[in-house]
Design a protein that fits this description.
Rossmann fold, 3 domains
């Protein structure tokens, strides 16, 4: 039996440089899932793009063949004409791209973009296409398919945009689906549901799947075959069970070692000490008003945060965990004074143990300037947090110039010192951000936040866009900086494995409320709230014998109306946050 897709001796290069992909070989059988595993720059994505002939202009396929053997015949995809290739893209082979916001047109409605596949490849009328697309939207989990059809990409959340990409890839019923990091930027609960959806659609249609990922937990839940790539070469290939249970190549073992996991051993943690608090949030709420597009309807109130009470001890890490829209980042912005809380909420900051606390949202101009030196932020996306038009030296010294600290020479020396502290060379100061990898850019973002010698750093998903080995380096860097400088971190994340490693206390948020709070050792081994249980169940593990429990995920990640009476809440009725054991608080009715 011929493989559905057969790649033989594939080599790809740019310009006159050396090949970036060398002698890559793999086969994909009908109905099978093949995982291409490796870090950024390993050649995974470009190998898949070669199959669709959507390489950058300067890239060339220098040798090898890519053969498609499906129900419509056999074709060497490296030799057929562009006209023939257009009949294959989106029809016989579809691709889900990593970042849906960049792949969807911001000027066209979601429904029209998905319908285009049927107009081009099936000759469907507008009414036929709309009917099929709405059916597909329902299958991929849109709560209101008609509303999604008429929405623009910016009106949907990241998870919903990714579902739209899946619908676009699936609507023509392809025989091969290429999914390029389809869940990297998603919350763990959304990721679990998206992976379950892809598997379900695969069972229904019998399509084959190439899954491009660096997450071994995703591989364990999805793949039958695995190909591990590094620097453009195949390091190891074979059945998933064999490679996940007994990796042979040193690079594969390195990936396993770097993957963060929730620890296995059970322990009882102690609550964060409360004597020396650097930050305290009391009764913090934030309500936004969304104006109705129809004049006769009332404006809608959006409760981003509701009654948040958090304490961060000096030199410790408080992690806020939850899915997109849970209120994590809003709470962090309020903590930094970037957002005003609703009346009655209060944020106190204490620079030193013997100092009087200052109220963050009632500071004078002088107090605010001093506070901004002591509290800094590391943003989620290392690619957009640095100006592409500023050299690294200018980006690094800008905070010192704003606060009028030091001479030009002293500012430059401080920038060089900070680069070395985060593991980069001072000769990189003259470069622009595009010359750095994702991990290096995140190091630069941390170094820039450190320029003013802060005491508090808010880390907003600082590792979510990074490979596992780079993520490991950044977490180690943050731990080293905390130990040497006694820094305090407010750490925002949706990745419980990362939180288990770095946090001293964890607060789980859902729909603006803290639903459970405890040290990680207590929270992960004695979770009480259904949403916390869903987050833990949704965390993919690199163990083929421990698949994601989608039923448990769906129960906890679903509407609060579906929870047990003890945990159920609504906009008008909210249970209290009760301490069930020392340091372990749960929002429930006792």
């Amino acid at each position: 039996m011929n493989a559905l897709l057969s790649v033989r001796n594939l080599s790809i290069g740019f310009g006159a440089g050396d090949a970036v992909v060398q002698d890559v070989n793999f086969d994909v059988e009908p109905g099978q899932t093949l995982a291409l595993v490796g870090e950024s720059g390993s050649g995974k994505t470009i190998s898949c793009r070669a199959a669709l002939r959507i390489l950058p202009r300067t890239a060339q396929i220098r040798s090898g063949s890519i053969t498609l053997n499906d129900s419509k015949g056999s074709a060497n995809l490296t030799e057929i004409s562009e006209r023939q290739m257009r009949g294959i893209r989106g029809n016989r082979i579809s691709m889900i791209f990593q970042e849906p916001m960049r792949s969807l047109s911001p000027l066209h409605k979601i429904g029209n973009q998905v319908s285009e596949v049927l107009w081009l490849h099936r000759g469907a009328s507008e009414a036929q296409a709309r009917k099929e697309v709405l059916s597909q939207f329902e299958r991929v989990g849109f709560p209101d398919p008609a509303r999604a059809y008429d929405s623009y990409p910016f009106e949907l959340s990241g998870g919903m945009r990714q579902r739209a990409m899946i619908a676009m890839a699936m609507v023509a019923k392809p025989e091969l689906l290429i999914a390029d990091e389809p869940t990297t930027a998603l919350d763990v609960t959304t990721q679990a549901q998206v992976l379950g959806l892809i598997k379900e659609l695969q069972r229904e249609t019998g399509m084959a799947l190439i899954l491009v990922t660096h997450d071994l937990g995703v591989v364990a839940n999805m793949a039958e075959q695995v190909v591990v790539m590094h620097k453009g070469r195949v390091m190891e290939a074979g059945p998933a069970a064999l490679i996940l249970n007994d990796p042979v190549h040193a690079y594969t073992k390195q990936l396993f070692d770097a993957a963060p996991e929730i620890p296995d051993q059970e322990a009882v943690g102690l609550p964060m000490p409360g004597e020396d608090l650097i930050l305290q949030m009391s009764g913090v709420s934030k309500t936004y008003t969304m104006r109705s597009s129809q004049g006769w309807k009332a404006d809608k109130l959006i409760y981003a945060c509701r009654g948040v009470d958090l304490k961060l001890a000096r030199g410790k890490t408080l992690a806020i965990v939850g899915e997109s829209g849970s209120g994590k980042t809003t709470a962090a912005r309020i903590a930094l004074g970037a957002e005003l809380p609703d009346p009655g909420g209060q944020v106190l900051f204490r620079s030193a143990d013997d100092d009087q606390p200052i109220t963050v949202h009632q500071m004078t101009r002088t107090e605010r300037t001093a506070f901004q030196r002591k509290a800094q932020m590391v943003f989620q996306d290392p690619y957009s947090s640095l100006s592409p038009r500023m050299r690294i030296q200018d980006a690094m010294t800008e905070p010192l110039e704003i606060h009028r600290l030091g001479t030009t020479a002293e500012q430059r020396d401080k920038a060089a010192e900070m680069l070395q502290r985060v593991g980069l060379n001072s000769d990189m100061l003259k470069r622009y951000p595009h010359a750095f990898s994702g991990g290096q850019r995140q190091r630069l973002s941390i170094a820039r936040a450190m320029m003013l010698d802060p005491e508090l750093i808010v880390c907003d998903e600082p590792t979510s866009a990074l490979d596992v080995s780079v993520q490991e380096q950044i977490l180690t860097l943050l731990e080293d900086l905390q130990d040497s400088l006694n820094l305090s971190y407010l750490f925002i994340s949706h990745d419980l494995a990362v939180v288990a490693r770095i946090a001293d206390e964890v607060a789980v948020m859902r729909q603006g409320l803290v639903v459970e709070q405890a040290p990680p050792e207590t929270l992960f081994y004695n979770p009480r709230h259904p949403y916390t249980k869903a987050l833990i169940a949704a965390q993919p593990e690199p163990d083929i014998n421990r698949p994601i429990d989608l039923k448990l995920v769906a129960l906890g990640a679903g509407s609060p109306d579906s929870w047990d009476d003890a945990f159920r809440f609504s906009e008008s009725v909210v249970p209290s946050l009760i301490e069930l054991e020392p340091g372990h608080k749960v929002r429930c009715n006792v």
